[in-house]
Design brief:
MetI-like fold; 12 helices; 283 residues
Length: 283
């Protein structure tokens, strides 16, 4: 018993030796963002571990759009919300019906379609940026937010379909048979049986697609150009266009931009853990 206790302590010590440096390395960028955000402009690059006179002036500048690079801050933040939420909703719509058809209705060729969709992940997303740009140009969608939304849905849907399909495979088929015997149609089966049981996986997939679109930069930079149409992620890149970039405002805006996905993760982390785990492990 004593030997087992010593082994347990040694294992925990090893985990701490690995975990603490990883945690500090992860928190270091966040610390620097906070440090810049509460530092006056003249001391932001001083190298001090903590500002001598912390201030919230940078937040006032950002919220008041009092700098050239921040002249459309609220509009761009709204663009980010609109693009991310719409991407999440459309991805859920496509993936839910596709997974239901493949897993529960077992449509002919469904598995082949899913495998072909997953095959697209063998090609890095950056390589698809130019073909996507060309495609959106052909259909006249360039500089339209729907071009970015459709591109994000195309990138997120294959993984979303795969996760939901694996989770759906774990549902007992006896439930479907019982509902059909009771006279349920396929849409009633989908609405009354499938959706309630798939709720954790649906939340996980929707959150995944939303955060993917929220963090996207390359496609947003290529497909959108107007300052009033771009999301805030692209606007943050504009801060680096000048030699004397206002780093304190860049970090303040970046900190604000990082808060919504962090909040979404903490609200839905329980559902994400359950949903992605169920969908990732095939029984």
């Amino acid at each position: 018993m004593k030997l087992l206790t010593l082994r347990g302590v040694a294992t925990e010590a090893k985990l701490l030796l690995i975990g603490i440096p990883v945690l500090l390395w992860t928190l270091l960028p966040i610390y620097h963002m906070v440090l810049f955000a509460i530092s006056p402009k003249d001391t932001a690059l001083s190298g001090a571990l903590w500002p001598e006179h912390p201030t919230l002036h940078n937040f006032a500048v950002v919220f008041g759009e009092e700098h050239y690079y921040l002249s459309h801050f609220w509009r761009q933040l709204w663009n980010s919300f609109f693009i991310a939420v719409t991407t999440g909703v459309l991805t859920l719509f496509v993936a839910t019906f596709a997974a239901f058809a493949i897993s529960r209705l077992r449509v002919r060729g469904g598995r082949a379609v899913m495998n072909l969709a997953l095959f697209t992940y063998l090609i890095p997303a950056a390589f698809l940026a130019v073909p996507m740009y060309r495609t959106m140009g052909v259909y006249g969608l360039l500089n339209n937010q729907w071009s970015l939304i459709l591109a994000m849905v195309a990138l997120a849907s294959p993984y979303a379909i795969w996760v939901l399909k694996q989770a759906s495979d774990k549902l007992p088929y006896e439930l479907d048979e019982a509902a059909i015997v009771d006279g349920a149609s396929q849409m009633q089966l989908f609405r009354l049986v499938y959706l309630p049981l798939m709720a954790p996986s649906l939340v996980a997939v929707g959150t995944y697609a939303l955060i993917l679109a929220w963090n996207e930069y390359l496609y947003a930079f290529l497909l959108l150009s107007r300052d009033t149409a771009i999301p805030l992620s692209v606007a943050l890149g504009n801060f680096l266009a000048a030699d004397d970039s206002p780093w304190e405002l860049l970090m303040t805006t970046g900190l604000i931009y990082a808060l919504p996905p962090a909040a979404i993760y903490f609200v839905f982390k329980r559902y994400m853990a359950v949903g992605l785990t169920v969908g990732a492990i095939k029984g």
